[in-house]
Amino acid sequence: MNILILTHSYPDVNFNWQGIFIKEQAEAISLNNNVTVVYFKVDYSHFSPFAKYSFSKRLTGNLTEYEVTIKKSFPVISQIKYLYNTYRFLEDEVFSKKEINIIHSHLSYPAGFLGTLIQKKKKIPNIITEHTWIRKYFRSFIHKQCVIFALKKTSCVVSVSNALKSDIDLYCHRPVIVIPNVVVIEKFALSKPKTSEILNIGILGGMGNKRKGLDILLISASLVQNRNFFIHIGGDGVLLDTYKMMSKDYGIEDKCKFYGDILPGDVVEFYSRLDVFVLASRDETFGVVVIEAMACGLPVIATKCGGPEEIITKETGILVEKENPVDLAKAIDNISENIGLYNKPSIRKYAEERYGQKVFTESITQLYKHTSIKT
């Protein structure tokens, strides 16, 4: 089949973290299909309201990736231009050159909205895979209406977790299929057996806001009874210096190492240093880093913040209440005392059987075969 993937979130030419989970889906789908990805974005650094779009192209096997750039325009008009120019690109470079069987849009707005409009115009089924809480789209009344229109009128809605499925149901009463994100397990290696008394704790995520809960972990670390630990902290953002100061204020500065931004090519090495991974998030619709850590055989401590409740089992880690430093500290002590009970190969096998490429491609193939235009 010829699949068109639409998204405004995708790794750019510098291969950053943005939308990497969408890229991994595209790569998995391209194993059995011809996939064209159109990643469209606004260049806010250049005001050029009448400029045409520009684009670059990458071709790898059955996967064609376009990066389409639209120049900034006037307020409000910029959004219209964004959608219109992307549609013009699709007409010029995609629809005129190949027959598309399925449009697969990631995130309800703008890709899901645009994909649904194209579905109505060209009679090509559009699937929306949602990754984020719906209320986060509601920056204005117009945005809210666009999102609800897309969710109601698209051919099929996919959620990456049951928690997100329930959230979608608040705004759109229709069947929602749950297909978790895919993780290429083969990219990761089992971490080495623990050889020292130090418990190496890891956390990885952006520091542009407090969503990932690093502040909670730092407070928790100061409460841990077994002080024989070291925290490896990966990620960058405007709060980095704030967190460094926190580690000093709580007396654990010598037990923390801040690595800054971890590039995708270095993430395996980062996990290899760890004995346990912590996801202290305030909200997550899924939690790709949890699966990556499990692919390395690491037990995971995660908060009950949405997606992780559907991933973590007693054999693979511990779930704690979110924004609860005391609960998290107790879990760290528990892991420290019982780290030998967690079987690394079994944790990796669990991740592969539920979130590996094979199970994902089987699910998505069946979805594509049975998706038709919504009437």
Report on the architecture of this protein.
- The chain has about 375 residues and is an alpha/beta fold.
- The chain folds into two domains: about 1-180 and about 355-370, Rossmann fold (3-Layer(aba) Sandwich); about 185-355, Glycogen Phosphorylase B (Rossmann fold), CATH 3.40.50.2000.
- It is built from twelve helices and 14 strands.
- It has helices at about 20-30, 75-95, 110-120, 140-155, 160-170, 215-225, 240-250, 265-270, 290-295, 325-340, 345-355, 355-370, and strands at about 1-5, 35-45, 55-60, 65-70, 100-105, 125-130, 155-160, 175-180, 200-205, 230-235, 255-260, 275-280, 300-305, 315-320.
- An eight-stranded mixed β-sheet has the order 3-4-2-1-5-6-7-8, with helices on both faces. A six-stranded parallel β-sheet has the order 11-10-9-12-13-14, with helices on both faces.
- Helix 9 (about 290-295) links the parallel strand 12 and strand 13.
- Helix 9 packs across helix 11 (about 345-355).
- The two termini are about 20 Å apart.
- The mean pLDDT is about 95.
